Structures are given as C-alpha cells and as structure tokens.
Amino acid sequence: MTNKYTMGGKPITVREKKLKIGERAPSFQLIGNEFNLLTNDLFYGKVIILSCVPSVDTPVCSMETRHFNEAVAKMSKDIRIITVSKDLPFAQSRWCAANGIDNVIMASDYRNLGFAADYGVLIEELGLLARAVFILNKEGKLAYIQRVSEMAQEPNYAPILEMAEKLA
What is the pLDDT of residue 113? Predict the structure, then answer.
C-alpha cells in the first residue's frame, strides 16, 4: 500500500500491486452493461486499453471516458477500450446513453472488487477504483501502465494512444 495518491489534494491509500510490463495480465471478470460477463479471453487477439476510473458520474472520469470514446473511433479496429469502475451497470448504461458513448465498453467491478485487487487500483478509504490505465497486447500481456497520482487529473493520453496504435 502506498500514500503517494491524492483525491482533491487529500491523501488516499491505494492498495497498489506491482505489475510488470511483459508479464501475462491478471485475468479479470467484470460485468457489462447487460450484466454479461466480460473477461480477458473475450478480447484475445485485440489490444485492450483498460481505463480505470473512480466513477463515470464525476467530471474528470466523464471527460476521460468521452476522450477515449472519440479517440477509439479513429483508431485501428484491433483496439478495444474498456472503462472500468465500481459503478453499477445500470448507472454506466444510463451515463453512456446520456453522453452518446458508443465506442467504449463499460465494465463494472462492483461484485467483489477482484479487478481492483488484481490490478492494484483499490482506494482503501472509498472502495472505489483509482485512476489508472493499462494496455494489454494481443497476447494478453501487459504492455503499458500509467497510474495517475491525483484522482482529479486526467491521464496523459498521448503515450497511451501511441502505444495502443503501435501494438495494433
């Protein structure tokens, strides 16, 4: 655990897990907007950008998801962007409809926070996901990790999008 993270300038504790570039990404089981199971295996052969956010109902998370929605429309068809939060699938679906999101796959870790634990993004005080981005290559290995230390800031998009295109 580390306290190098903040939310609105106030320290928070993220149960960070050391993941290494080049190793097989932890398996995940997330819930889609129709309560369907989403796993790594469903996206094998595609480059996956996992965008972790505290809640799509907050301004920064909303901006981040909209940014990725616009970006993926112009990218290789071999790239999938999955926004992961603890928001319930009902809320994610409502938010997508209200914001015209149709290129990003929404996924919830509300059931058991297994994704949060395995990827090291659990905010201990809130039980929400910390802002981070992971890229998995077509073979399911970790190719890029970006953890954002201040939850009220967006990630640095340029290296994320460049890496995804390079891997596609």
Answer: 87
Q: Where do the domains of the chain lie?
A: 2-162
Catalytic residue among 12, 48, 61, 164: 61
Annotation marks residue 52 as catalytic: no
Q: Which residue has the tokens 């994610």?
A: 92
For 27-58, write each residue's pLDDT tens digit. 999 999 999 999 999 999 999 999 999 999 99
Could you tell me the fold of the domain covering 2-162? Glutaredoxin (3.40.30)
Q: Given pLDDT bands bounded at 50, 70 and 90, which one contains residue 3?
A: low
Question: What is the DSSP secondary-structure string of 37-73?
Answer: EEEGGGGTTSEEEEEE-S-TTSHHHHHHHHHHHHHHH
Task: Check if the beta carbon of residue 123 is closer than 8 Å to that of residue 130.
Answer: yes
Q: Whole-angstrom Cα distance, residue 31 to residue 69? A: 19
